[in-house]
C-alpha cells in the first residue's frame, strides 16, 4: 500500500480532510485545514489536540510506508509533546521522518506547525511494518 492509498483508506483522515503534500524515502508531510467541527475550545476557536494527534500519527505512518519495500504499518507507540495551541483558522502541517529502521520496526520523529516559528507539537514514535516479500 502506498502512502496516498493509506491516507485515503482511513475514514478519520478523510473527515479531517488530510492532504499528502510531500513524500520521500522515509519522510512525509501531511496537512489539514482548520475546521470548526474539530474545535476543542469554542471560546478561543483552538483545534482539539486529538485532531493534531491524528495528523501526526497519520504522517508518521505515511513516512514509514515511504520506506522502500514497506507495505503495511501500525503504530506501536507514540509520544506527543504539545507546546502551544494552534492558531485558529490556520492550516496545520505535520512533517515526519524515519530516523532508524530495523527489520520490522521504524522509529519516527515528527513536528506539527501552523505557520508560526514555534512548533505546536513534537512526537516520537515506533511503528511496526511489513516489507514486501516478508512472511507474516
From TrEMBL:
Occurrences of domain Thioesterase (ranges): 45-118
Keywords linked to the UniProt accession: Hydrolase
The keyword Hydrolase belongs to this UniProt entry's keyword annotation: yes
GO cellular component, one term: cytosol
Domain of life: Bacteria
Database matches in CDD domains: PaaI_thioesterase
Protein's UniProt keywords contain Hydrolase: yes
Gene Ontology MF terms: 1,4-dihydroxy-2-naphthoyl-CoA thioesterase activity
Cross-referenced NCBIfam families: unchar_dom_1 (TIGR00369)
Protein name as annotated: Uncharacterized domain 1-containing protein
Source species of the chain: Roseibaca calidilacus
Lineage: Bacteria, Pseudomonadati, Pseudomonadota, Alphaproteobacteria, Rhodobacterales
